[in-house]
Design goal:
3 helices, alpha+beta, globular
C-alpha cells in the first residue's frame, strides 16, 4: 500500500495548517501534522478501518473518513493498493463545501 494526495487534499491541509498556526501557534500545528501522519500510518496497515462517510454514500466512489482529532476528518478512497487522500475536512464547516470537492 502507498499514499497519494489529491491537489484538493493538499490545499485543504495547507488551509488547516495556516489556520492552526494563526490561532494556536506552530507547536500545535506540528502536533496536528504528527496526528495526520499517525493516522495515515494506521490506514496503511488497516485501510478499511475507517467507515464509509455517510454524507458521501450517494457517489459512485466509496469515500471513507478517518477521524484525526475531534472535528477533523481525513477523507480518502482506496484504489487498488493506493490510499488516495481527497480532503482534510473540518466537520464544523459547511457540508455543501464538502460535497462540492
Amino acid at each position: 500500500m502507498h499514499i497519494e494526495w489529491s491537489d484538493t487534499a493538499r490545499e485543504s491541509l495547507e488551509d488547516a495548517l495556516e489556520y492552526t498556526i494563526e490561532e494556536f501557534g506552530k507547536r500545535i500545528a506540528r502536533r496536528f501534522l504528527d496526528q495526520i501522519d499517525e493516522s495515515l500510518q494506521h490506514l496503511l496497515v488497516f485501510p478499511r478501518m475507517a467507515p464509509i462517510e455517510p454524507f458521501l454514500k450517494g457517489y459512485s466512489t466509496e469515500y471513507r473518513s478517518y477521524v484525526v482529532i475531534n472535528e477533523i476528518k481525513l477523507l480518502y478512497r482506496i484504489d487498488g493498493d493506493c490510499i488516495r487522500v481527497e480532503y482534510i475536512w473540518n466537520v464544523r464547516r459547511s457540508l455543501r463545501l464538502l460535497c462540492s470537492v
